[in-house]
Specification:
Radius of gyration: 21 Å
Bound molecules: alpha-D-galactopyranose
Structural class: alpha+beta
Strand content: 15-25%
Shape: globular
Length: 387
Amino acid sequence: MKEAVLKKFEEIYGTADGVKVYFAPGRVNMIGEHTDYNGGHVFPCALTIGTYAAVKKRADRKLRFFSMNFESLGVIESSLDDLTPSEAAEWTNYPKGVMWAFAGRGMEMDCGLDIVINGNIPNGSGLSSSASLEVLTGFCLKDQYGFDVTNVDLAKIGQYSENNFNGMNCGIMDQFASAMGKKDHAIFLDTADLSYQYAPLVLDGAKIIVTNSNVKHSLVNSEYNVRRSECEKALEELQTVVKIAGLGDLTEEEFEANKSAIKDEVRVKRAKHAVYENQRTIRAVEALKENNLKLFGELMNASHVSLRDDYQVSCDEIDVLVEEAWKVDGVIGSRITGGGFGGCTVSIVKDEAVESFKEKVGAAYEARVGKKADFYVVEIGDGPRCL
Ligand code: GLA
């Protein structure tokens, strides 16, 4: 990937002299879905796949972007004097949003950049290609201009730019997982205060498999923002009867005792998911520490049911993948991962069942949905770096 992105840089911009190459990973979330904007816990890990950038400073204030994933768009030009979102800017709205967010924090770039991007996260798969591009941009700005930011700052800046420049009200999980990734570890993050612990995730006798449904429904961003506001409204209603800062502050019992304050059935279901999913995540990490993979898997399955029925962010294709996974001997747990409405599932599968998992789930998916699914045995990697 490094060689490919360098070669392309030379081809597009005429030289590879003085060009630096950077990488930031995508992520998969093991459990704790739609909890990160509710002050709850998440448990994601960085992947070894992600986004690469070849970068060189320019003498003027121009910005030139080229993506090997969107070759037909050609070079997209902009300038440091035009850090505003636009449709014409296409995918460059992500790096431009990060540059804009740096500038807003007093970190002004004093010259432009030539950039070539190349990612190996399957497009629209829910494995955080956009967060990896944001963290990658932030990491590159830090290195090129000497800005004084930590990796946690990179996560916050990435989220801020996605919320305020790109109009997607995401939580912090994806950017945090990309910026703070650690080989062979998942990150147990409390989004209420950003405290975190690394938990080893090399499973004894089992593998983590990501299955790509190869579908992405267009409502993902709009429905995501709707879920978020439903939770905010439910929180306000609950705050009239209990003193809490977020839905993540409630146990299941406290929620059941106070849920009548929520005046709408749909919002009750949304809030229930946020509360129960947070508690499941805490329990799952304890189970993992105790080497109780069986319980971890059961909690993953319960997470899926809750996302499907209460939070309603699954879709038929994903439900087929999960149902078929549950049928296979040797599957410890399986659920949708990421924002929803398509994308990927994550499953824990015993070593000896990996091949039959791929065969059986793949064949059933093709028969029932008419599409091919892709399977990846996941490797957990480190955060952003200069290569
Ligand atoms: C998307 C968002 C995250 C998180 C997940 C759901 O990936 O970017 O912040 O909310 O959905 O868990």
